Structure formats: C-alpha cells, structure tokens
Amino acid sequence: MRKWYLSFATLMIVVVLLAACAPAAEEPTEEPAEPFMVGQVTDVGGIDDKSFNATAWSGMEAAAQELGVEVAYLESQQQTDYAVNLQQFVDEGYNMVVTVGFLITDDTLAFAQQYPEVYFAGIDQYYGEEVPANLMGLGFNTDEAAFMAGYLAAGMTQTGVVGTFGGIEIPPVTIFMVAYAAGVDYYNAQHGTDVQVLGLDLFVGNFESTDDGRRAAEDLIAEGADIIMPVAGPVGLGTAAAIAENPGTMLIGVDTDWCISAEEYCSVTLTSVMKRMDNTVPLAIEMAMNGTFEGGYLNGTLDNEGVSLAPFHEFDDDISDELKAELDTIREGIIAGTIDTGW
Amino acid sequence: MSANFVERWFSQVSERTGVAPRRAAIYGLVFLGVSLLIFALFATSSQAGQVTTFVLNPSGETEAFPVPSLAFPTSAALYLFVLVCAFVGGWQLARGFKRINLVLGGILALFVLAFLAWAARDNSLNLTGLLGSALLRAVPIALAGLSGVLCERSGVVNIAIEGIMLTGAFFSALMGSLAANIWGWSLWPSLVFGLAGGLLAGALLGLLLAVLSVRFKIDQIIAGTAINILSMGITSFLSARILTEFQRLNNPGIFPRFSVPGLASIPIIGPIFFEQNLLVYALFVLLFVIHIMLFYTRWGLRTRAVGEHPRAADTLGIDVYKNRYINVMLGGMMAGLGGAFLILGSVGRFDEMMTAGKGFIGLAAMVFGKWMPFGTFGAALIFGFADALQTKLAILEVPIPSQFLLMAPYIVTMVILAGVVGEAKPPAADGQPYEKQ
Question: Which H helix or E strand runs over A152?
Fold first, then answer.
C-alpha cells in the first residue's frame, strides 16, 4: 500500500512541477507586466481524450499563440480532483480557469463565488439564472449545425430514408435530432423530394452500451435508412461498426470530428456535428483580457464558429458542388436568422 | 347461475384438462380480455383501406431465397385476430385446453402481431430484421445466463457476471488488438487470440470469486459485488490510460459473418439463425453441450448434487470444493465469452461500462429459465425480442413515450415471471458456503 502512495505522490509532484515549469520557460521579454495566466482543469477523460478535453486544450493553445496568454492544464483522475485542481490554479495566481465537462459544474460555481477576482469559464455547464459576474458557461447551439447535417443527409441519401437515434430523451440529445429532422424537411421543401427521417422517437436508454448502438443501427438499416446520426456518445461507435459492415451506409458523428476521434471509421463518416470549444475558449479568454467578460453564458453558434459541420474528409468528392453551395447558403440563412432550425 | 354452478363447471373443465379450476377460469378470461384489447386499442383505430406490409427479406447481403413481402389489409387482419382470441377464450371457458401455457404463448404472440400490424399500418416493417435483431440482442444475455447456470447449479451465486463480462470485453479488445495491430497477425488468429484473452480474464475472475466464496466463505453477494466494482474501476482506468491514448490497441476487428451452406437459404429462418458470426454459433453449440453435460454426465450429476446437498455429496466422496472451483471458473469463462461477443462479435472496440447491465439481465434470464440452459436461452430470447420490438415501435413512431417503451422488456419479465413460470426454485444450497466437517 505504501508503495502505491509513494508512486502516486511522486507522480503528483512531477505533474505539479511540469505544470509550474512550462509557462516559466516561455515568458515573453517584451512584456514586463505580469502575463495573463489561464489554466484548464480536465474532467476524468484526461487531456488526450480526443474529445472535449483535447478540443478545449487546442483552444487554449490557440489563445496562447494569438493572445499571448500563458496556459497550463491539470488532469483530474477522479471527481474529487476537480476542487483540488481548481484550488491549485487559484493559489498559483492564475487569472482565469477553464473547466471542462458538466460534472465540474458545482465545483466551478463554488470557486467562482469564493474567488471573485479570478475569471472562470465552464464548458457544457449550466448554473441557473443567476450567474456570478466572473463566471461564464460555454454552451452550444448544436441545432444550427445539426440542421445542416440533416440537409446534407437528405441530399446524400440513396434510399430516400435517413435515420437517427438518441441515448436518453433529454434536451441536449433531442436538440440534435429535432434540428436534423428540420434540416431534412427543409431539403424536401426546397427540392420537392420526400426524404423520410426514422428514429426521432428512438432512444436506447443509456450512453454506454455500444452493442445497443449497433442493434439500433441495424434496425434502422433494415427499415431502409442509409445515413444515421447517433446522438448517444460512445454508443454511436457501435453504430459505426454496423455502418462499416453495411456497404452504402454512412454515419454522421456528433460532438467531435469522428474522423479524428474514431479514425478507424473515417471511411464511413459523412461528416460530424461539432461542438467547437477550440473556438469559444479563446473568445472567452479574450473577453476576460480586455474586460468585456460578463457573468452569464456564451453560446457557440455557426456565426462565432462555436458549432460547425466537420470537413467531409473522404466524402469530399462525393458531395456535389451544388450541395456544398446550398449548405453555405443555409449556413448564412441560419446566421441571419431567416432559417428556423426547428429547436 | 350460482357460484356453486361456476365452481362445478370449472372443476369439470379441470378434470378434463388437468389445469387447476381457478387457473382455467382466469386464463379463459385473459384470452377474452386480449381479444377485447385488440378490438379496442387497434381494430377500432385502423381505417378500411389501410394496408400493412411485413417485409420478409433481410436487409443487406443474404443467401436466403427471396420471398415476397406480406401485404394485407390492416383492419381485416385485426378483426380476424379479435375473433380468433375470442374463440380461443370461449373454448377455454367451455371446454378447456390441455397445454394451456402453449395456448397463452400463442395468444400473446397474436397480441404482439396485432400491435405490429396496427403500428405498421400504411407502412412497412421488416419482420425478419426484427427477429434477427431479437436473437442478436439475446446472445450476450444468454451467455451471461449460462454463466449463472454453471455457477448456481453448483451452489455459488454469481452476481459478478456483469463485472466479469466487462473485464472479458476489455481483455478481448486489448489482446485482439495487440495481435492484430502490433504483432501484425492476420484476422482469424488475432480474433481467436482476443477471444482467448476474454475467456482467460473470465476464468481468472471466476477463480477469484471461487477463492473468496468457497475458500474464505465470504458472503457470495458481497464477494460478487466487490468483483463488479473492481472490474468497473480497473477497466475504466485502463481504458482511459491505455485504449484512448493508443487507439491501435482498441481495434481488434470483428468476426465476419458466415453462412451455413444450405440452411442459410431457407427464407426467414436462414438469415436469422444461419447467417451469423462464429460466436453466435458457439452459443448454440454451448447450449447443447452444457445441457448434456449437466444432465447426462457424471460431472453434471455431481454438480447438481453439490448444489442441492453438498453434505450428502461430500459423504459420498465428491470433492465439493473442487467441483465448485471448476464450475465457477467455467461460469466465469462463459461470462468472459459474453464480454468477448460484445467486442469481437458486435462492435469491435471497448468503451467504459459498455455492458450496461446485460450481466444482471442474464441473471434474471437464468431465474426465469429455471436454471436450465435452454430455459435461460428462451428467457434471453424474450428479453431480446422485447428490446427489438421496443426499437421497432419507436422507429414506427408509435405514440407511446420512449420511457414506457424502454420499460417494455421489464414489464414482460414481470408478467411472465408472475403469470406463467410460476415458482422458480433455485438449487437448495445456492448461495451457502460449504463447511467441511
């Protein structure tokens, strides 16, 4: 037992040293004033999760490049680490702390209330109506990008049937599905087609069982769907396995670019509906630096590129230029508010 | 008509059929009730001219002979079902059926069919796809249930099936990927290596459970729960540390489907049972093997003796501990195989907590199937069917909230457990540590 503690303690010391050393090495000479320091606290997924934490970190690195801030991260191994890591950044005099994931909501709010002089931003977190002036929740209008995905799917389907399903029937899930269906309807209205959406009522009941994701996909395919957007976290990777085994079917990923986060399925991934914290995080940091930071929420939209469709990767050549042009028009329409995403 | 008359009437029915009078009466009423339900819920709300289409060809590549889709007028079919159910109910009250459970099964099947016909009115539904999906959903549940059968027949309650499955899944993914992507083995050897990894992990956790519950006589529920928690922690930690960082270690490949020559071309049956991957066939074989071993071999007799009355078995010179060790390890391997199926037979990668309760449902299937291999498989099929049906109904946009649809498998369980299976009796010494004298 003692050995475990010893190695764990050593590990923590190394992490702390690394976190402390890294910023010091690249201290700019032309700025005698104290640099603006921003720290990121990951959730238990770790910084290399190829998902939320990694995307947020690339936003931090972008901010370091463009805004000249100093960035560092602390990984949380378990939920009890959240407060410890937050405390460490605060104690070291960081000006701003970004926390990733809705699990850190309570800790972030508590720290924001306790340290009003430090800015806090939380990704995928909701604190209710009253938000402290130094706290910003970074959310996503995923419906805007999901609408585009629906339009694209309707334009690409060979069978005239596209599918989707969710993990559990909650708003962060249904927002994708509703807007996806609205996108398909919009395509039908524009082109006089009759593309059907299956699975708007279909929920597998969890966010874990990849096997359920595969079975749901097979059932959708059996009813004729050839493009499926699973909105169920990792469960969608089971869907990807079914898609890969059924020639002619395609997948639409959610949250991150699945061509990168699940590269083995890149050849069947038409596109992904992405939450781009790599774009919203620098925005929030910039606001904190120039004093326009306000307590409340900053939602990623198509306009500020906080949400977007992923590149088409291997399907780029299959998508006609007309369809791409139409997608651009739709994007502008959503930004301008002339197109309703159905959410 | 006095109560006396009713009583006499049903005792006559009972004499003729061998079904208890009360039961005979209740079943008759149930059949009539189903008839009424189909009439009220479905038949009245379907209009003349609506047509239901049941597609009988599976989607995707298949060797089965193509068969035409089954299209029929919805309301005519529904009224036919109403009449059939009413007739069966009336017959039951008047004369009585001998094989009452079979009739009940038929009536329930009719009800489900009526539901589907109604839900798919002016629409189509792939019936073969539905049944195939039911089977595939049943496979991991059945393997988990078989694990329970092996353990509990020898008197050890294995509540750790869920955790063992999860660990088996993790190691089959890791070992399979190691072989395929690091050592560069070809598909089949690396899949078999992954399978071996899952089986080995299952056997080792089974051994751990056996040591805890047989050697140290710890309460078996506690020991099993501890193993579950251990498995969840270890696999989540290792997957976050190893699999997410090196994605090549989480891509073992999937057993390809292969068709059994001849049998696969039978319409409907062929694509459901004989166009599957190796692990599904393995389940079919294991069902027979375990059934025969349990009931027709010396080992099976000893196992059942140890599970029913270990002291008596001990007096006759059977090594109770050894028997329990072997059985729990075999059971662990079965759960490991269930985990391996989820990876190598289904999704081809490991994700945290991916078993999502299938091990526990397997335990329920075991109880439901009265600790018999084929009974367990039948129960697993019913769970799988309820699950598949739920998905189809959601796709058909039946106006029932998703939460209620997701409850369907569990409601089915409760109804069948309470109504049909009757008292399920575990092995007498199930869950009790054996103390040698």
Answer: helix A142-156
